[in-house]
Amino acid sequence: MAAFGSHSLLKNLAPTPPMGFNTWNWFGKAAVNEKMVREVIDAMASTGLRDAGYTYVVVDGGWRDTKLGPNGELLAHPVKFPGGMKALADYAHAKGLKFGVHTVPGTHDCAGDPVGGFGREEVQLQQFVDWGLDFIKLDKCQYAGGWNEELLKTTYLKWTGLLNKSERDILFNVSAYEFRDWNPEACNMSRTTPDIMAKVTTKISGGAVFDSIATAKFFWSVMHIAEENNKLAKYARPGYWNDAEMLVTGDQGLTLEEQKIHFALWGIMSAPLFIGSDPRNMPAYEKNILLNKTAIQINQDPTEQGTRLKAVDGSEIWTKKLKNGDVAVLFFNRNHMGAKNVTLPLSEVGIKQKVTVSDVYAGKKLGEYKSAITRSIPARSCLYLLVKK
Fold this sequence. Notes:
The chain is α/β, with parallel strands linked by helices. The protein has two domains: 19-300, Alpha-Beta Barrel (TIM Barrel), CATH 3.20.20; 307-388, Immunoglobulin-like, CATH 2.60.40. It has twelve helices and 18 strands. Helix 10 runs parallel beside helix 11 (284-290) and helix 10 runs parallel beside helix 12. It is globular. The N and C termini lie far apart (44 Å).
């Protein structure tokens, strides 16, 4: 295996930001079950989500039994997942989708059940290979006696080595609630923050929240996450992406305009796009956001993780340079009251000639601009632009 520091500890299974669905934000642990997962797989295949690029279906917490088998192997919950995980993986594959699960590297899972992979990594990874998994989310959760940074790194890198040597390509998502400098060499995507507030956190936060930093310790708002993720842009590259958490579109607490800003931010930041709502019952307005072809193309462009260019009096400009020389630009207004004029001098994104500007969400051209783009942005709204030379 290559030496640490070479950017080649793991197979490159993510040349662009991964896309898919995860059960957690909407269903949590209690509501997840085999029947629901099969229905979600059907919906992903039939509604255009799969064909738009959302190919991973990941079952988060709730699929495991509360104990391990006699050899340290994971057991599917006998009531909620009686058919086991291989059958679900086979079903997903038959529908043209990929399949993954949530698992834990310590001694216990997040609820305290003794089902962790610590000391049993080889056994459990072989299960994942035998089941035909394509993705694992390795969630820090609990280690008896408490994690320290050295143990955490050693444990995660053990998984990296085993995955690299395994006979199956399994995308590796490190979920350890903050970024560490070894993440880009250890995995294909890694969480940079605690959990996002979502439908599953309604009793704690009231659901998804767009703009607040005064949140519970383990649950953050959309903008709190975006601001933290923005600091780590230099690490993103084909093969490794900063995971800004699952999406909270749909009926989870954000207004329509806040959802549009949220999705545009994740696109600009080249963040993995994992649907966190219910694909079986998705309102038309949510589908219009998630299936926007230009927005997806911006996200999937591997040139860079875009960043915040400026923030003035509640209005912000975020930009991402694309491989063909175009630039994606997001204007938005965080204020609750009053429109704001937002101006982008084209020289600030390296453009010195006349450009054609299109509205990504409206799907129409706004015209030609020569030296600067100025637009009035209503309160708590955005304008997502594609600037073509």
